[in-house]
Structures are given as structure tokens and as C-alpha cells.
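Ops channel
N.P.: pipeline sanity check, posting one input/output pair.
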């Protein structure tokens, strides 16, 4: 996790009231609380994640660059 800034551990409560009768699966209360923790953790990660903008060339610049590198195969007069 030290390598990646977008990873996080979510602590899960192990209160008996959040699990089903047999104690293995979360009940609706436990699922609701876990879902809220996941949402809040994702929001926190997205807030601190630095996003660099994508810089694109203007269309005119792109056309000029392709014309510079373009080698015509035949002259119009030769067709």
C-alpha cells in the first residue's frame, strides 16, 4: 500500500448485531454500514489523488505536423 496512493484498508466492525443469525454473513445493517465506509473511503482517495490534465494539440497544429512529415507518393500531374 505504500507504493500506491489509491489503496486503503477499511476497518470492519465485528459487532454481533451486524451479522446474520449464524454469524457468518453481514445482515442489512452491517451491509449498510460497510457500504457507507466504502463510499467514504473512495471519496477520500479521489480527493487526494492528483490528476494531470490531458494536453491535446489543436487541430490546426496536428494538420501542420502531418503535412511536415507527409511525403507525397505521386504528383497530381502524374495521375
Amino acid at each position: 500500500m505504500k507504493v500506491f496512493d489509491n489503496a486503503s484498508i477499511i476497518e470492519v466492525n465485528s459487532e454481533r448485531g451486524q451479522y446474520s443469525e449464524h454469524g457468518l454473513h453481514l445482515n442489512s445493517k452491517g451491509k449498510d454500514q460497510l457500504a457507507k465506509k466504502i463510499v467514504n473511503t473512495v471519496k477520500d482517495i479521489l480527493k487526494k489523488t492528483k490528476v494531470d490534465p490531458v494536453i491535446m494539440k489543436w487541430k490546426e497544429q496536428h494538420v501542420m505536423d502531418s503535412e511536415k512529415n507527409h511525403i507525397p507518393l505521386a504528383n497530381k500531374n502524374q495521375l
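N.P.: looks fine end to end. The chain has a mean pLDDT of 76.
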